[in-house]
Amino acid sequence: MKDKVRRGGRNHAKTDAVSPTGGKDDVGIKQLEDTSFPVKIQGAGVEPFDLQVHGFWLVQDAVMTLLLKDEVCPRSNLSLALAGTTLDPLAELQSLKGLKPGAIIRLVEEPYTARSARHHLARVVELLRAPGPQDALREGRSPNSPNGKSLKRSLSNTKTETSSQDGAPPEFLLPGSLERPLMGLLPHSSQHDAPSYLKDLSLSCWNPIPGHRKLQGDFLYITVVTMEGRRCDITSCPKGFFINRSTEELFDPRPSQSSPVCHCLTDLLCQISPAFKQALTKLKNRSQLPSVEVLPTPYHTLSWLGPPCASRTHKNTFSRLGMDDQLETQAPDWNEDLQAARDLPQGSLEERLRRDKTLLQVNSAFARAVAQGAETVVDGFVEPANGNPEDPAFLWGGLFISQGAASTMFGGERGRRAAQRLELQGVQAYTIVDYRGVRLSAQGLAPGLEGSDRDQAAAPAKGLLYGVNAGPQESPQRMRLLELLAVSAKHLSLQRYVVVTSNNYKVPLFTSVDAQGLLGADGRFYILDVFRTFPADANFCPDVEREGQTVTEDEESNKKSEEGEEEKGCVKKGWPENYHSDSGLPKSFPHGLCRLRPELVQAFKEHKHCQFTQHVRELLEENGGFEECAIASDSRSTNAVRAACKEVGSVSNIIFEMRFNPSVFSPEVSFPPGDSKSTKLQERLLREAAAFIVTHQIPAFVEYCLHSNEAPMDGASLKQALHQRGISLRYLGHVMTAISQSEHKERLRHIMRAVIGDIFTRSTRRVFNNFLQGVDVPSLSAAVSHFLCCLLVPHFTPTPVGEETKKKSRRRGRGPGAGAAESSPWSTLTGAELWTLLCQEAAETYNISDSLGSGPNHLVEHYGLQKLSLLREFCLKTGVQLRLRDYILDNQNKAPIGPDDVLNIFPVVKHNEMPTVDASKAHRAAEGFIKKGLLDQAHEKLKEATYLFESCFCHTLLAKVAFMQGKAAEARSVQLKAVVISERVLGFDHPNTIQQYALLAVYVFAGGETALAQKCLLRARLLMLTVHGEDHPYIATVDSCLGLVLTGDQRGQFLKNALRLNTSFFGSSHLHTALSEHLVAHWMCSKGDYRSAMTHEKEALAAFTSIFGEDHAQTRISKELLCTITKQAVKVERSLRQAGADCTEQAVEYLSSKSDTVLEQMVLVTGIRSITHRDGLQEYWKKHKELKAAVAKELGFIVTNGVVTLIVNGEEKSSDPNTGSGKEAEDEGSPAVENASDSQQEQPEEESSEKSAAMTNGHVVEPAETESSAPNEVNGNIVNGEVKSNATADEIKSESNGVNGEINGACDITVKHSVLKSTGTWADVVSKANGAADTAVNGTAGSVTANGEAEE
C-alpha cells in the first residue's frame, strides 16, 4: 500500500486535511508492512516451513499463530528457541538479537501440566470433529459459502440444477412463477462427510487417578477404539502419552513394552492405527481454504433452516472424553476483562489494533457465554440465587442473569422488556437474550457492589457517589465522576439540570433520575440504571402533558393568559399547527419508556441549525444586508445571533447549542421554582423533536423509498433504514399511514408490504412469547408446529388429540410426551383465536385497525405478502429453526408443519458492537476520495481498511473501485470475500447478501465466466423471491442483468419483467425505466423485431432527453441506436419486399450486442457506475451565468464569453475550458462512484481552509486534488466532474454550506456543521469580515465553464 500522494507542498497538507487517517496513521500502516519478514520453523516433529512474522509481535503471538497452522496442529505446549536459547514469551520479536529474515526458529516441546494436557486433548478432539457440510445448519449458524473453484459447485448444488441442458433457468425462477421451493436455498446433496478417524475416544473407566499413580505423574487415562477394532488404554503424563497395560477387567498402569512416549497424541494414534494415519494425512493434505471461510465469526448468526435429516447428520463428537464438561476452576471476571482491554494503550497503530482485537474477542466471548447461560437457566439447570420467584436472579459463569422487575409505572412486562433493551445502549458488559419466550439480561459482576451495608458505611467513598439518593457529599472521587459525566453529557447532548428530592434537597444531574454512580473496589467508576438516558418521546407522553412538573411559587405565571396561548395555537407549545388532529399524537403506549433515538437527536440538531442559519441570514438582510453586517462587525450581527438562538430554542443565547433534559415528561420528577423557564423550553424542544419525526423524518424515508431500487426488502433492512433516520419501530403505524396517504402509494406498495409484514411478525412474537409460557418441555415441538399452523393456514382446526395419538402409536409407539397434549391448553388454540390476539396486539402497539384482516389470506390478497416470507421473519425473530424442505402452507386438510419439522429453538442475542476506529476512519476517507473521483487514493485507503478489519462493506467498496480502475480480476477476488463474509456474518438470505451476489455476477462476467454469472444472478433471484417476492424494484435490477447474460428464449421474459417493474415503481420518465427500455430495444433488435425496438427506444430517448438534456452522452447513444434501428428496419422491409427474409438473419447478427456493451450495461444497471446528471434547462443556466457574472464583476473579475478571469499581479489568469487536472472516472468524466451499500457512512468533516464545497444544480463543486500545482495554488475546482478554474489559494475561503447553498439556489443540501461538535460564534454563520473579495462565488473561486458541464 504505497502512498501515491506526493510528499511536500500543498498536496501533502491537503491530504492530511482530507484523510482522517493521514499523518502518523499512514506511517503506522507502512510500518505494519515494513516490519514483516519470513523465518523458517523447524523441530517438534514437523516438516520445515516458512512463517511470515511482524517485528512488533510478541513471541507468544508467534506461538499462537503457529498453533493455528495445519503443519503444527494439533500440537500444543510448545515454545520457541533461537540459536539454542529459549525465547521469552513476552519479548518483542524486533528486540531479539540475531533474528533476521530467513532465521531458523526451532519448536521446543515443553513438559505438560494437568491443565495443558487437557488443553491438548481438547485440540485433538477439535481436529477429530472435522466440520461437515451440515454442521453449521445443525448448530443454527448461517452456512459457510465455498469459495474459489467450489463456488460453481455450491451454486449448482441446489434445486436450480434442475434446469435444462441448454442453460435455461428452471421454471420456478422465471417471471410470474408462484412456486417458492426452499430446497434450492441451501446445499442438500449427499456430499462426502468428514472421514472417520476413530470409533471411540473417551475417558477410561479407571479414572480418577489413584493417589500412588498421581505421585508418579499420571494425569489422565483415555480409552481408544480404532477403526480396526483395537482397544487401547492411554496414559497422559508430563512427557506426553503412552499405551498402558490396562484392560476392561484389569488395571495395570505400567507402559506397554512396544509403546513409545509421544508428545502429541496423534503421533501415538498414527502408530497404533493405519486407518487413523491415512485419514489424518488426507486431512492435512487437503486444499487450504481462504481465511474468511475458516476464521470463526465474532457472533452467532442464526439460520432459520436446518439440515433436511437432523438425525442422520448427528455424529459422534467424542464428548465422552469430557473436554466439554471441564468447567473453569474460577468463573471469568467479564467486567475486569473488558476494562483491562479498554485500558490498553492506544498510542501507535499496532497498539490500537491490538486493543480493538482484544475488545472484540472479549465481547464476542461474552455474547457466547450469555447465550449458553440463557439456555442453561431457562432449561432449569440453575437455581435462583435470590430465592425470589417473582424476580429470580441467577449467577452462572461469572454472569448475573435476571429478568428484571416489572414496574407498573413503566408498563409491566412490556416496560421490563423495553428497559432491558434501552439499558443495552448504555452499558458495555451487558447483553439481552430472548429464549423460549423469556427475555433475560446478563451482565458482568461489578466489583465492590456485593459488600454489606456496614462496609459501605465504613467507606463512603466506595459507596454511592452520584444520584438522587446520594445525598450531599464533597469528595475528590465525586468531583472526578461529575467531570466525567459532564464530558459524556456533552457528547450525548444532555443538559445539566437540578431536581428537588422528597426532603427538598436540590440534586444536580447530568443523566436521568434513575442513574446511580458508584466507585468500585477496583478504583473505577460505574453508572447503573441508564435505561432512561435519552430524552423522552413526547408523542407518547399524553398523561404527562396534562400534569404540571415544575414546583413554582408564582402561581400567577401559570394562570396568565392561558386562553390567549390557546388562541395562538400549538406552535407556542412546540406542536405544529393541527398536529393533534392530523397525526393523532400524543397518545398512550403500552409501556412508559418511549425515548428518542440518538440518530433522531442528531438529525433534529442539524434541522434546528438550518433554521438558526436561515434566521440569522434573514435578520442580517433586514438590517442592511449580509455583506454589510459582516464587514461592519457591529452589534447587528450579535443581536441577530441572539435572536436566532432564542427563536430556535438554543440553551445558550450567544452560540447555537442544543441540549435536552432526559427527565422532562417524567411525572415523578420535580424541578426547582427558578428553573421554570428552562423546563418549559425543554418541553417545547422535546415536542418539536417528537413532531419532527412525523413531519420530516417519516416523509423523508418515504421519499427515499420512492426513488431507490434498493429499498428495504424485509424486517431487518426496514429496521435499519428507519433507525438510520431516528424513527423507532413504534412508528410503523404512522409510516403505514404516510404511505397510504401518499399520491404515489401504488409505487410504494413494496414498502407497505414490508411494514405490514413487520407489524405482523412483531405482534406474533409477543403473542408467541406468552403462548410458550404454558408449554411443558416435552411438548415444545408439537406446540410450536401447532402455533405456526394456526398462524399461516386459514381456518386451521387442530386434529383431535385421540386420533393423532392412535396414529403415532401404530407407527412408532407412544413417546414420553405423547399424551401431554390431552390436557394442555395450547392444543386448543385455533386460527381465529390467534388472529384475534394478533389484531388486538397490533392495534394496541401500532394504532392500526382492520389492517391484518381475519386471516393470512387477507395479507396475501391485499398486500401481496408471501406466507413463506412471514414464516422466515417469524423464525428469525423467535429463534425457531425448521427442517429444510418445501412447505405447502395452503393445505387446510393436513398440517403443513409437523413436530418433526421443528428442529430447535436458539437464543436470540442482542449485544453491543465493538467499533474499529482506524478501519472506520480509513473507510470514511476512501468514501471522501471516491466522491472526488480520486480512485487511486480511495483504493489505497480501502486496502488499509480491509487490512485492519475484514468487513463486507469495505470489500464491496474496494471491489467497485478496483473494477472502475480496470482491475476486473481483483474486483472478482475481493467480491468473493464480500459474499462469504455477508453470508457468514449477516446470513445466507440477508438482503445485503443478495446484493453482493448481483455485484459478483458483474465481476465474474467481466472475466468471461458467463455461466457462473448466470448462476450468481439466479441465486440472487431465488433469495429475493424467498425474502420478499417478485414485486420489488431490486428484482428489476436482477432481471435486467439476467436478460443481458442469458442467451435462451427466457432472455426476453426477464427484460420485459424488469421493464414492467421499473415502469410500475418509478414511472416512464425515470432513469431505471429508460435503461430498461434501452435494453428491451437491444433485445428486440437481436430478434429482428425492429418495429417494437423502435417504439421502446423512442421511449428511452424521451426519458434520457428529459433527464439529461440533448447534449448528454447517454442521449446521443440512444439517438444513434434509434437511427440505426430505423435504417435497419427500412433495409429489412425493403429486402423483404424484394428478395425475402434471408437478409433478415444477417441483419439480426449485425445488431447483436457485444460482450463489452453488455458489461457496460450491467455496470449501469447495478449502480457500480452512475450516469452523471446534467440539467439541460437553458433558463437555469441563463440565470446561473447572470448571477455569476454580476457577483464576479462586483469582486473585480473580468467576464469574457462566460469565462471568469482573475487579474493577479497585473496578469490575467483564466482557465482553459478544455483542460483540467482532476482525476476523472471513466464514465463521461464523472468522478463519482456511488456506493450502493445500505450502510454507507457519511463523509468525514473537512475543516481545511483551503477548500470550499457547495452544490451547483445538485452537483458537488469543490477543489480538486492535484499533484503538479505549487504549494500556494489551487489548480482548479471540480464542476460536474471536471477541473475548470485557476486561482490562488489565498482567495478560497471556507464558507458555510448554508450560504453557498443559498447562492446556488440549492435547498437539498445535506447539512453537517462543525458548530454542532464545538463551540462556535456568529462567525460560524457569516463570512470573515475582511472584505468581500475573500468570498468565493457559488462555492468556487476562479472560472467555471459557461454551461457548467464537463467536456467529453
Automatic annotation (TrEMBL):
<feature type="compositionally biased region" description="Basic residues">
    <location>
        <begin position="1"/>
        <end position="12"/>
    </location>
</feature>
<dbReference type="InterPro" id="IPR033646">
    <property type="entry name" value="CLU-central"/>
</dbReference>
<feature type="compositionally biased region" description="Basic and acidic residues">
    <location>
        <begin position="557"/>
        <end position="570"/>
    </location>
</feature>
<feature type="domain" description="Clu">
    <location>
        <begin position="312"/>
        <end position="541"/>
    </location>
</feature>
<feature type="region of interest" description="Disordered">
    <location>
        <begin position="1333"/>
        <end position="1352"/>
    </location>
</feature>
<feature type="compositionally biased region" description="Polar residues">
    <location>
        <begin position="1337"/>
        <end position="1346"/>
    </location>
</feature>
<dbReference type="InterPro" id="IPR028275">
    <property type="entry name" value="CLU_N"/>
</dbReference>
<feature type="region of interest" description="Disordered">
    <location>
        <begin position="1"/>
        <end position="29"/>
    </location>
</feature>
<feature type="compositionally biased region" description="Low complexity">
    <location>
        <begin position="1272"/>
        <end position="1282"/>
    </location>
</feature>
<dbReference type="InterPro" id="IPR025697">
    <property type="entry name" value="CLU_dom"/>
</dbReference>
<keyword id="KW-0963">Cytoplasm</keyword>
<dbReference type="InterPro" id="IPR027523">
    <property type="entry name" value="CLU_prot"/>
</dbReference>
<protein>
    <submittedName>
        <fullName>Clustered mitochondria protein like</fullName>
    </submittedName>
</protein>
<dbReference type="GO" id="GO:0048312">
    <property type="term" value="P:intracellular distribution of mitochondria"/>
</dbReference>
<feature type="region of interest" description="Disordered">
    <location>
        <begin position="801"/>
        <end position="826"/>
    </location>
</feature>
<dbReference type="GO" id="GO:0005737">
    <property type="term" value="C:cytoplasm"/>
</dbReference>
<feature type="compositionally biased region" description="Polar residues">
    <location>
        <begin position="142"/>
        <end position="166"/>
    </location>
</feature>
<dbReference type="InterPro" id="IPR011990">
    <property type="entry name" value="TPR-like_helical_dom_sf"/>
</dbReference>
<dbReference type="Pfam" id="PF13236">
    <property type="entry name" value="CLU"/>
</dbReference>
<dbReference type="Pfam" id="PF12807">
    <property type="entry name" value="eIF3_p135"/>
</dbReference>
<dbReference type="Pfam" id="PF15044">
    <property type="entry name" value="CLU_N"/>
</dbReference>
<dbReference type="GO" id="GO:0003729">
    <property type="term" value="F:mRNA binding"/>
</dbReference>
<feature type="region of interest" description="Disordered">
    <location>
        <begin position="1210"/>
        <end position="1282"/>
    </location>
</feature>
<dbReference type="InterPro" id="IPR023231">
    <property type="entry name" value="GSKIP_dom_sf"/>
</dbReference>
<feature type="region of interest" description="Disordered">
    <location>
        <begin position="132"/>
        <end position="173"/>
    </location>
</feature>
<feature type="region of interest" description="Disordered">
    <location>
        <begin position="545"/>
        <end position="573"/>
    </location>
</feature>
<dbReference type="Pfam" id="PF13374">
    <property type="entry name" value="TPR_10"/>
</dbReference>
